[in-house]
Amino acid sequence: SFRYLSLIIYDTFYTDVELSLIMFFIEVSSDEDRKEWSFSFPDSIKALKNSDVTIPCTFTAPIDLSEVNLIWYKYQSIGYPQIFNSKDPSQVIEEYRRRTSLLANGRNSCSLRIKDVKETIWFYPGISKDINSYILNNSQNVQVKVTGCSEDGSCEAWKFTFPPIIDALKGSCVDIPCTFTHPEDAKDFNCFWYSERGHQLKVFNNKTQSDVADEYKGRTFLTRNTQNDCSIQITNAKESEEYFPGINMDINSLNLKNKKVKVTVEDKPPEPLISGTENLEEKKTVIISCAVNHTCPSHPPTLTWSITGHPTMESHKDLSILGGWRMESIMTYTASYTDDKTALQCAATFPNNKTSVNKITVHIKCK
């Protein structure tokens, strides 16, 4: 009806009385249409800072639902800033671009998901600045209230477990094992790792990988995709640094328990340890081991022996919450008098192409 009446006004000459009558019919039609629009959603929702939040919402409309351009607005006293526009994303204000999306919960759903909420704000849905819940329903909007762990007395439920210190090799990667617990009602939260250098410098952001310090972009990853696990890998270790995990700048291990992990980066690789050569007798078969600890399970060191002709097998062991891994080469060695007083060497070659060597002198007892 709007379009038809508008064309008549544009193409045909009317007296003032006739024009007033047409405008009256337009206004009545508009008011009647507005009555057929309705939006249903909660008054408020609590969310942790930097978490994702879903606002459940349904609506009714006097037109085909497929033609509806759903819009969500941020409440402010002047203007109608859009945080979501289903048909024209360019209308969304910069701070909410790529952070909002509709949830497909049925044809009459206007449920909105907002990523990485940062502060308490009011929002409302609609299709235009004239047809929306704020105009139709006496200033109806929803408050997304950003809370801290202390508000509900749940700070003690947040616990992060990780080793206090890890030794890493310069140029290699380092895995930091980490697990955590959280309140039962906490959901859709993010996982961060921070450096204590500076003002909580972000080195890892699980939901927005680009939102980290430039020097850490593309260098940090979650290592386990399991519930309540915050283990990360840092590639190309450069300098010694202290790190701590959390879900935002308020809820983290440093603020709650003054806990952090010191990653000590060394230029010299660790030396492998040779064991099992203490009691060698001619023609007796023993197990000799060469083992070295490291921090990069995706690129473990390579172990090589100076003697050949004996069966070997390798073992790679996770040292778990202690931090680090152990690479071990096990050789089944049959002693021969010809090896007496000779050197037995094991070399460990690391991903940064540095090698460390351990050498011992073999003493074999004759029968």
Description:
- The chain has helices at 2-11, 16-35, 133-136, 253-257; strands at 38-40, 44-48, 53-55, 58-60, 71-74, 82-85, 100-102, 112-114, 121-126, 142-147, 159-161, 165-169, 174-176, 179-181, 192-195, 201-205, 220-222, 232-234, 241-246, 261-266, 273-275, 280-281, 285-294, 302-305, 312-318, 325-334, 343-349, 355-361, 364-365.
- By secondary structure, it is mainly β.
- It folds into four domains: 1-35, no CATH class; 36-147, Immunoglobulin-like; 155-266, Immunoglobulin-like, CATH 2.60.40.10; 273-365, Sandwich (Immunoglobulin-like).
- The protein has a five-stranded mixed β-sheet with strand order 2-10-9-5-6, with no helix packed on it.
- A hairpin with a 6-residue loop joins strand 25 (312-318) and strand 26.
- The longest helix is centred in the N-terminal third of the chain and has 20 residues, at 16-35.
- It starts with a helix and ends with a strand.
- 25% of the residues are buried.
- The model is unreliable at 1-29 (pLDDT under 50).
- Residues 269-363 form the Ig-like domain.
- This is Ig-like domain-containing protein.
The CATH homologous superfamily name of the largest domain equals Immunoglobulins
Largest sheet, order of strands side by side? 2-10-9-5-6
Low-confidence stretches: 1-29
Mean pLDDT: 87
Largest sheet descriptor = 5 strands, mixed
Structural class: mainly beta
**Radius of gyration (Å):** 33 Å
Instruction: Tell me the domain tally.
Output: 4
Percent of sequence in beta strands = 35-45%
What is the C-level CATH assignment of the largest domain? Mainly Beta
Task: Give the helix tally.
Answer: 4
Q: Examine the coordinates and then state which fold CATH places here, giving the name of the CATH topology of the largest domain.
A: Immunoglobulin-like
Number of strands: 29
Architecture of the largest domain, according to CATH? Sandwich
Cα distance spanning the termini: 110 Å
What is the molecular shape?
elongated
Helical content band: 10-25%
Protein name: Ig-like domain-containing protein
Domain Ig-like: 269-363
InterPro entries: Ig-like_dom (IPR007110), Ig-like_dom_sf (IPR036179), Ig-like_fold (IPR013783)
